Amino acid sequence: MNMQTAPLNILLIKMRYIGDVILTTPLLKSLKNGLPGAKIDMLVNLGTESVLDDHPCADRVYAFDYTLAKKKPIRSLRLMAALRQQKYDTVIDLTGNDRSALFTFLSAAPLRIGYAGDRRLRNRLVYHREIDSVLGSIHTVDHHLRAAEILGLPPADIHPSIHVSMQKAERMEKFLSQQGLKADQDFVIIHPGARRPYKSWPRERFAGLGDEIIRKYRIPLILSGSRGDRDICAEIAGRMKETPLNLAGKVSLSDLPALIAESRCLIGNDSAPIHIATAVKTPLVALFGPTKWEAWAPRREQDTVLAAEFPCRPCGHSRFQCPLGDQYCMSEIAFDSVRDAVEKIMESGIQG
Predict the structure, then answer these.
(1) For 223-276, what is each residue's pLDDT tens digit?
(2) How do the domains of the chain map onto residue ranges?
(3) Which CATH superfamily does the domain covering 166-348 fall into?
(4) Does the predicted model carry a pTM greater than 0.70?
(5) Angle at 334 between CA 201 and CA 243, to 5 degrees
(6) How many whole angstroms separate alpha carbon 83 and alpha carbon 94?
């Protein structure tokens, strides 16, 4: 790359969910390593931005409030104007929907990059260069890294990263002490929630697994989740014969990486915490069902992925439960398989 014409002021747009944002961090690192003098900002959805707190490769993170923008469209215009004032020389649209394309176009950046797709007329108007990659056809991280490739930059890493500051680590240590955990005490986390209920392993199996972990390893078992996961965590705790530490609704997304970083192991469904775990190098057992796991699964050596594979996947229906029945998908992941995966991590002595 000719460094005289190399991008120096870059905006990445990823207006999706928490896990999607985490999986952009290898691209962030590749751009920062390949263009050490460049300023790299990100535009993400409100509620996802805190996973980029203190990230060494992100200079500024803008959060788009979709709910507020629907009520007051002027807010969107103000954000678009603020981004245009930054005079980005390169904007990379990693989202590919109409909203992100509009932000990309109105940035007026001399180089606008997006993914090829069915919206040919829109893409021809918005993007100067198109990336020949379809989301889901390869791993999502590799899909993002194609943007570095189009700029002539090699991938710096294929694993996501989240920075846990000393301040957050110390705050989490103090919080855990207040919850009754001793300093440097090992613990395991079960995160039983998922964005859609049919992506969740059966609750009674999480309860049985929690009991076995406490009995076999004689360490605390933490149930983690957002406020929306309080009911499921309470149900699992109620089913257990042993007593877990239920932290559902008590740890913010901003502080969750610090909690997971201290854990010996995390067990969770296809949801943001498994991506946080691999980003802070905590061993994990990830449970996949409806999603095409090949495109989303953590890939570190200590990461274990167990999947229920059916011909109907990937599915993305909007129903509360699987239309083929509650026992059709995630329940196919055997209890023994998950227990054995946890045992392998615990007995290997692998630490985050």
Answers:
(1) 999 999 999 999 999 999 999 999 999 999 999 999 999 999 999 999 999 999
(2) 9-150, 166-348
(3) Glycogen Phosphorylase B; (3.40.50.2000)
(4) yes
(5) 60
(6) 16
